[in-house]
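== Fold encoding ==
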Amino acid sequence: MEYRIALVDDHSLFRNGLKSILERYAKCHVVAEAADGEEFLEMVDTLKADVVFMDFAMPGLDGAQTTERALARRPDLKIITLSMFGDENYYSRMVEAGACGFLLKDSDISDVVEAIETVTAGGSYFSPSLLSSLTGRMRTRKDDDDEQLSQREREILVAVCRGLSNQEIADELFISKRTVDKHRANILEKTGCKNTASLVVFAIKNHIVEI
């Protein structure tokens, strides 16, 4: 499978570097570039891309505003957020806007390729170092009104988002690991998620946790 990619970032040096790295892989082809959100939205209706790498901090429209407007017109696009450590407070906005992947700008190329493959297959992706940092900041929202999951399932989901293993969750909730395993399987089935990254995105989007 070939991946057609668009790059949206206000730093041309970074775009050129990422383009050079991506095109070393036969399956990746950069088909469009934009220096800001407005420029990207001008081309989005006719864009022949599968994946968009979107910088968050740009002049004019930021990444969240651009993502929301682009997906309103092209819901088929898979948008991966590009950020630096310290931008975690913006991730809730990007999740709400519809981004399905999150990469640090200094990620290894293996993480970049994995992100592309994951989101094009319908999943969500966080770079490992970013997910590790993010889970330590998660906390339960007091206005959680999600009815899709039981109270126990929500408790376990929050613990998963905090980065706890099934055994650690069992110890914290004073239940068996087998019970946690069963609840986690039920959560994955109910939410349609496939991994921890997808569960984090689901929990943020459904206001179960906040960063």
In short: The two ends are 35 Å apart (CA to CA).
